[in-house]
Amino acid sequence: MTESAYRSKVSQKTLEESQPEHAMPSRMAEENWQERPISGGLSWGKVALITGIASLLALLVYNAVSGLLADFERYPITSSVLGTLLGIFVLSVSIVILRELIAYRRVNRFIDSRQPLGALRELPTVADVDRALDSQASQFGRHSFAEHCYRHYQTLKRDDQSAKERVDLYQHHVQQPVQARASSVLKRESMTAGSLAFISPNALIQTLAVMWISLRTIRRMAQVYGLRPGTAGNWRLVNVLVQNIAAQSLFDLATDEVVNQISGTLSAKLMENSAEAVAAGALNVRLGKALIKLLR
Amino acid sequence: MDEKVSEWVAAMRGAPDASRQLLAGWLGKQTHRFTITGLSRSGKSMLFTSLMTMLKYRTEAGYECLPLLTRLPTSLVDSMYMEPLPGFEMFPVDEHLAALESGKWPQATDTAYGFRLIVRLTEQGRFKRWLMPYSEVVFEFIDYPGEWVTDLPLLEKTYNQWSDSAWAQQSGGPQHRFSTRWREFIQDFDFEQEPTEARIAEVVSEYRAYLAEAKREGITMLQPGSFLLENDSLSLTSMGFSPLPSTVTSDPSHPWLKAFTANFSAFKKDWLAPLKDKVFREADKQIILIDVFEGLNHSREHLYQLKETLSHLAETFVYGESNWLSRTLLRREKISKVAFVGSKADSVPVSERDALLSLLTQLTEGARAKFGDKEVDFEHFLVSAIEATDEGEARNAVRYRNQHGDYVEASFEPFPKTLKDMESDTHYPVLDINVPKDFLPRILNSRGMDRLLQFLLG
Asked: How does it sit in the membrane (chain A) (predicted)?
């Protein structure tokens, strides 16, 4: 049989349009992602703080004034102003609490709804994997590093990839970079925690500094993951936070005692502060790892 | 004196650096020797061009063109450079890219090219970085004309064995159709005449004409394929031969048999054996490149013949796991990883790619049987060196720009799931695809290369 005698199983037709042009593939531009400032402008937290202080001041003024003018009914305007300020303060505090609750629910929803990548690999079709990952990614906050990675991942999807390959791609281009970034943030924050503990002149300031840096660590790391867990974050994290502060205080007591037993020299004080700095850094790492474990 | 002391001090200071460089050279080098075994027109040159272009753009410009390749992370790649392999001409990647730029596919390879692709990776760990600032992944590739590869099995054969097998191949299958003229020529030729240089040249020339026609008609088992290419080192006067009829080969004293046996031996000794040593040197990883579509273009018989060819090819390579001693001291490598790659996958619509992969798996059955119980890790892949087509309106269609510049949609009937399901009177003609104008993004967006490299580097 000659070639021409074969029946062709391909039918062809000429199209009126011209061939579309392909775009170059995306570039990995991790450095383009900039950490956004944690807060900008006047936040509700600040309003609460300001109005709180204002209320306190106003009450002090009020008390001073009431001391002079004993009869409240004789000064209705002053009492109205004080009442308004107090109202704003209560409202602001309520909004802050509400936001914390929403953020708390968001973190919990994320933790509850996400499926482990191992389970996603078992899904039968690429469409199922895409749906699951899209749903997971819908909880990434705008402008977050996770969202940035997810957008990049979207450009790497190809029609010939299997469900397992799609999950591997997600793991490599979203999960791993996000975790690496979170670890780097944690490292930086832990160094700061250690430094602050080292230079803190007394236990109270040290505890406050550790508490502040711990809350900042949670916020910054959650921002990498695209979540805003609020100041308190997640109950489990709060537990870790409280344990950390307790451990730091105990450690502080212990080092004080050791220093008292040894001597009161400068080198002993230096040693004490160094030990506390290491402890503060390590406890902060513990907190950060708990957060990574929750969110990954 | 002071100068000498300064020099000595400087040398002592530099000693740790030099030692570390040396150590990095010894320990931080990961060499992958690839042999790409591909028949003529299987797309080897385009694959090389595409691979080099993708790695270059990935390394130097940060394009994510190999998304599934995690064993060579972009973030760790410091630089990439190429150097020729000793004894080889440099692979003409620039000429190939220039050809694509001018709307032509790269020329078929007519000689051997070798190159080494070195990807330098920075170390992550601080101590490791101090000790060995970088590690290198070295790829060694050799490109050669596909016609040569089918000749390798001849090394294990005597002239008589080869002549008998050549006649057996021509007596059946698709070769039978294209060898009619050649067989008639042999039938009419008077072998009682002395085998003079002119007469030998006449017979060899007729045999070459048959080989050339068979190649045009999609036959893959062409022996000796080297006769299809002009090469100064291959003198057909002293190394030319063809199959002889059994009336001649059965008589050991026949002058034609003596002449062709001598030429066959010279061909093996002076051409094929040095070629094998130089071009088909030991490698630890093998890519067997197969254009399944080329078989579908012709007939079911062509596909079976392609399967047979692959099976014969696998006989010529040494498979198994090399140990440290043989690899490092004896410099003897065995192939421990084999990727069977179906090339030009972009010519096939998405709906038929599973079937194409299934056909590819069946085509390699014979070759895989040659691995026996040796530890050989293998997988099948579909790869496109360039995404020259676009998706059609339906899943069973692709769109492409043909040689006349028209944009055409080709709709495919379902591919057979198995070789035996292929109807004997039907075929899937090869698409007349022209080089797309936007060839660079289409190379960088091509499919399957990342999966292939990920497997081979694992």
From this structure: Multi-pass membrane protein
Residue B216, domain member (yes or no): yes
The interface predicted TM-score of the complex, written ipTM, equals: 0.75
B445 in A contact zone (CB under 8 Å): yes
Do B344 and B291 form a contact (C-beta atoms < 8 A)?
Answer: yes
Task: Please state, in angstroms and rounded to a whole number, the distance separating the CA atoms of residues A25 and B374.
Answer: 40
Residue (of B241, B234, B237, B245) closest to B261 by Cα position: B241
Inter-chain residue contact A24 with B440, CB threshold 8 Å: yes
Mutate which: B63, B68, B298, B440, vs A, most A CBs within 10 A: B68
d(CA B333, CA B326) in angstroms, rounded, equals 7
What is the tally of structural domains in chain B?
Answer: 2
Contact between A30 and A177 under an 8 Å Cβ cutoff? The reply is yes
Beta bridge partners of A25: none
Cβ proximity of B407 and A17 under 8 Å: yes
Mutate to test the interface with B, among A156, A160, A165, A166 (most CBs of B within 10 A): A160
Q: How far apart are CA B95 and CA A7, in angstroms?
A: 39
- What is the three-class DSSP state of B368? helix
Q: Can you tell me whether residue A11 is helix, strand or coil?
A: strand
pLDDT tens digits, one per residue of A123-173: 888 899 998 888 888 877 777 888 888 888 988 888 888 888 899 899 888
Where do the domains of chain A lie?
41-113, 115-296
Of the three residues B279, B305, B323, the one that is the final residue of a domain is: B279
Name the range with the highest mean pLDDT among A190-194, A263-267, B255-259: B255-259
Instruction: Using DSSP, state whether A37 is helix, strand or coil.
Output: coil
